[in-house]
Amino acid sequence: MPLNRDLIGRSYPASDVYEVAREKIRDFAVAIGDLNPAYTDAAAAQALGHADVVAPPTFLTTLQFRFPHPSPATDAELGLNYALVVHGEQRFALDRPVVAGDRLRAQQAITDIRDAGRNELLTVETTVTDEAGVRVALATSVIVSRGTAAPKSDQKQEA
Amino acid sequence: MAATVSYDEVEVGTALPSLTFPVQRINLVQYCGASGDFNIIHWNETTAKLVGLPDVIAHGMFTMASAGRVVTDWAGDPGAVVAFGTRFSSPVVVPEAGGATVDVSGEVTEKLDGRQVVVTLTAKCGGSHVLSGCRATVQLA
């Protein structure tokens, strides 16, 4: 089933506050196999000029999986089958490093859905802000929905 | 922020130290837990094959994090990365026996204003490029 194109432009409410914890950063660092002291040792991070342990550059990807709030992944109207999903593209613009103690909100929007052959490409932008509303990062994800493109009437159907 | 690499010491073409990352199923399970991304294709071989994948595949974000390490190890401060992006051109297939290996190398491809540089990364697994257009912008000293 094709994704619901009526949802292009849909913006979801901002998440609850996510408090970045030292131990969460450590867990993430362990999971990516990278025990950089800046991720695990506050003194090492402070020696680099950070207030506390710093999060790896891809850490903010965790925010989109943390809340049961409405999002493209949970939006029944979108019709996304997660088992058919692979990640197509990811970009982060990091306005500043994320450190333990940050209190962040994530707000998602569907900015595009298009065909790519038999697949569909869903673009989701996640804006991460601090509690004062100052942007901390913009994460752009292109999600591939495999094999869900509507059959093209002007193309020969594959057997 | 305090990158230990000076902008003045870096030229276009400067190579970053390469790294090799073994990837086993246990790493993916651990990444599921740490990231919250429990997509079944990252841990269940039966379903992965049912939906047309060759086997369980690694999270693209796991591969991207590995590539990022080449940059953060080099820069000396993970907080020096101000932009990071990639396309996932080919999946990292992780069979139960043996797992997979990803080789990552990087090179400075552009010097920007404000003492920033662009690093272009190459990640290969089994002869395939698993990332394409993988670039990080780094604030140097």
Feature tags:
heterodimer; A: 159 residues; alpha+beta; 5-stranded antiparallel β-sheet; 31% strand; B: 141 residues; 6-stranded antiparallel β-sheet; 3 helices; 23% helix
Would you mind describing this structure in some detail?
The complex is a heterodimer of chains A (159) and B (141). Chain A has 159 residues and is an alpha+beta fold. Chain A has 3 helices and 5 strands, in the order E-H-H-H-E-E-E-E. In chain A, strands 1-3-4-5-2 form a 5-stranded antiparallel sheet, with no helix packed on it. Chain B is of the alpha+beta class and 141 residues long. Chain B is 23% helix and 35% strand. In chain B, strands 1, 2, 3, 4, 5 and 6 form a 6-stranded antiparallel sheet that branches. Chain B is elongated and about 50 Å long. The mean pLDDT of chain B is 97. Chain A binds chain B through residues 27-28, 30-34, 36, 38-39, 47-50, 54-58, 61-62, 65-66, 82-97, 99, 140, 142, 146-147, and chain B through 1-2, 21, 27, 30-31, 33-41, 47, 51-52, 57, 59-62, 64-66, 68-69, 71-73, 76-79, 81-88, 91, 136.
What is the compact description of this entry?
By secondary structure, chain A is of the alpha+beta class. Chain A is built from three helices and five strands, in the order βαααββββ.
Which protein chains are joined by the largest interface, and how many residues does each one contribute?
A: A-B, 44 and 45 residues
What best-fitting shape of chain B do the alpha-carbon axes yield?
Answer: elongated
Helical coverage of chain B, percent range = 10-25%
**Low-pLDDT stretches of chain B:** none
